[in-house]
Design a protein that fits this description.
56% of the residues lie in helices and 4% in strands. By secondary structure, the chain is mainly alpha-helical. A hairpin with a 5-residue loop joins strand 2 and strand 3.
Length: 297
């Protein structure tokens, strides 16, 4: 019975809510973690009480699990119990009564403009391996340029097709979380890098970014190419494709872009998600003041 409820919930999230495979995997993992904690004493999803969920929460905090992990697990449970209330006749959700630890506010790490320029130049200046096909450095340059120019998530970038690019209008149609579409402008250097790559790789339709076998590039391949260029750079910290997204947002706000516009470009459902970048900008302004003003300290 409990397994049937879980399966029905995951199907509901996939079909009716268009949840991503990653979200579905996280929800399944959260439900499984909860059942594992109960062990043989698991009373069934309809019978679990708020106090029992509080004990699970307390146990996770004693184990010093990251607050983000704890909140993610309870987010899955809250969605699950909403489903049980609205679709399976449960009277109320026991997890609604559980107070969670406040999320940790970690400011995103961003590159400065000089570091971005250095990184984006590397694909076309780094030594080329003998087995590398001639179009691959141009592909890598286009990938990095597009990450920074448009602030895309890695799943959004690898999912792009040629038809999604409007070269005349200089924008790209992006399919984000929950299958929501948005139109994002493309800067001149990124557009030129894309055109150069597509011409050299003879890509005219289907997926834009290809792997060695000329099928859609994998997320792992994108991660690896970024690590490769990072090693060749002077950047002193680890970066991910998402840090290029962070840099995109922070540099826009630094230059005076309004928060609502940045929210729209990033595809954030909530303005509060975008607001973290205003804290980054304030930190950068404070640092600039402390470094430059003769009476700052």
């Amino acid at each position: 019975m409990d397994e049937e409820l879980e399966s029905a919930f995951l199907k509901f999230m996939e079909v009716e809510r268009s949840a991503s495979p990653r979200t579905l995997a996280n929800y399944q993992l959260a439900l499984g973690s909860c059942r594992t904690w109960f062990g043989a004493k698991f009373p069934g999803w309809r019978e679990v009480t708020a106090d029992e969920f509080r004990r699970w929460l307390y146990d996770m905090m004693k184990q010093e699990l990251a607050k983000a992990t704890i909140r993610l697990r309870f987010a899955a449970l809250r969605s699950f119990y909403k489903f049980l209330v609205h679709r399976r006749g449960l009277a109320r959700s026991p997890v609604a009564e559980v107070q969670l630890p406040k999320p940790e506010k970690k400011l995103p790490v961003v590159l400065n403009i000089a570091q971005v320029d250095e990184l984006l130049a590397l694909p076309l200046t780094a030594p080329i391996h003998k087995q590398t096909q001639p179009w691959m450095p141009m592909r890598d340059a286009a990938i990095l340029e597009l990450f920074y120019s448009c602030g895309l998530r890695i799943s959004e970038l690898r999912g792009l097709d040629v038809k999604d690019i409007d070269f005349h209008g200089e924008n790209v149609r992006v399919t984000g979380k929950g299958s929501k579409e948005r139109i994002v402008p493309i800067g001149g250097p990124a557009l030129a890098a894309l055109q150069r790559y597509l011409r050299e790789a003879v890509v005219t339709n289907g997926p834009i970014f290809l792997g060695k076998r000329r099928t859609r590039i994998t997320q792992q391949a994108i991660d690896l190419l970024l690590k490769k260029y990072l090693k060749l750079s002077s950047i002193p910290f680890k970066i991910s494709p998402h840090k290029l997204r962070h840099s995109f947002a922070t540099h826009l706000l630094d230059a005076g872009a309004d928060l609502r516009s940045v929210q729209s470009l990033l595809g954030h459902a909530s303005l509060s998600t975008t607001q973290i970048y205003t804290h980054v900008t304030k930190e950068r302004l404070r640092q600039a003041y402390d470094d430059a003003h003769p009476r700052a300290k």
